[in-house]
């Protein structure tokens, strides 16, 4: 499959999830929501409390906005559906490992819908000194595009996209695409 990606373990549930992760120390975790006992969303909360920098991608059949939003609020780095192709799963793992927030455009739209319902409109807009190119990339992130999709859309390299996104994170004082998208919408930056 993929030379630089390997599965270090798999678990049927979130029982003893912290101990299991301490033993395997993965870079990225694929987590299901519907598991016996502790569900995946609570599993994400537990893991993020102990391993705040761990990248966790929810991989599930659920497309409803509430579960998606709850998973992301719990600390999930991304959200993909189980019907994703192997290539999409590998790309999601790579994106998450590099600091991205993988999700399909449909899932991104549901996240935005949830954000609009719960995020109060800010009266004053702060100045973040984003360049026009950075605003353009941020707009594409808000639309749910992956780094690869943004690179293809703008006809620039993946590395260039990654470089711009890192500068955007720095200027917005955020650490993930989810936080950048949330702040962009909440503060009406774009």
List keywords for this structure.
190 residues, mainly alpha, 3-stranded parallel sheet
Could you walk me through the main structural features you see in this protein, from its secondary elements to its overall organization?
The chain is mainly α. The chain is 52% helix and 7% strand. The protein contains nine helices and three strands, in the order H-E-H-E-H-E-H-H-H-H-H-H. The chain has helices at residues 17-24, 40-50, 65-74, 86-97, 105-118, 132-142, 147-154, 158-172, 177-186; strands at 28-31, 55-60, 78-81. Strands 1-2-3 form a three-stranded parallel β-sheet. The radius of gyration is 17 Å and the shape is globular. The model is unreliable at 121-125 (pLDDT under 50).
Task: Chart the SSEs and their pairings.
Elements: H1 17-24, E1 28-31, H2 40-50, E2 55-60, H3 65-74, E3 78-81, H4 86-97, H5 105-118, H6 132-142, H7 147-154, H8 158-172, H9 177-186
């Amino acid at each position: 499959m993929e030379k630089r990606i390997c599965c270090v373990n798999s678990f049927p549930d979130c029982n003893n999830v912290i101990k299991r992760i301490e033993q395997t120390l993965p870079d990225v975790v694929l987590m299901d929501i519907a598991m016996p006992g502790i569900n995946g969303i609570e599993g994400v909360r537990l893991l993020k409390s102990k391993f705040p920098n761990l990248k966790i991608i929810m991989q599930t059949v659920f497309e409803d906005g509430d579960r998606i939003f709850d998973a992301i609020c719990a600390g999930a780095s991304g959200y993909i559906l189980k019907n994703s192709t192997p290539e999409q799963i590998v790309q999601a793992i790579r994106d998450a490992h590099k600091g991205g927030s993988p999700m399909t455009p449909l899932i991104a739209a549901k996240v935005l819908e949830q954000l609009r319902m719960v995020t109060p409109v800010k009266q004053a807009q702060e100045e973040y000194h984003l360049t026009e190119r950075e605003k353009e990339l941020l707009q594409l992130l808000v639309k749910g595009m992956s780094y690869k999709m943004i690179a293809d859309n703008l006809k620039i390299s993946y590395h260039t996209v990654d470089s711009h996104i890192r500068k955007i994170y720095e200027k917005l004082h955020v650490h993930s695409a989810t936080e950048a998208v949330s702040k962009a919408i909440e503060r009406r930056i774009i």
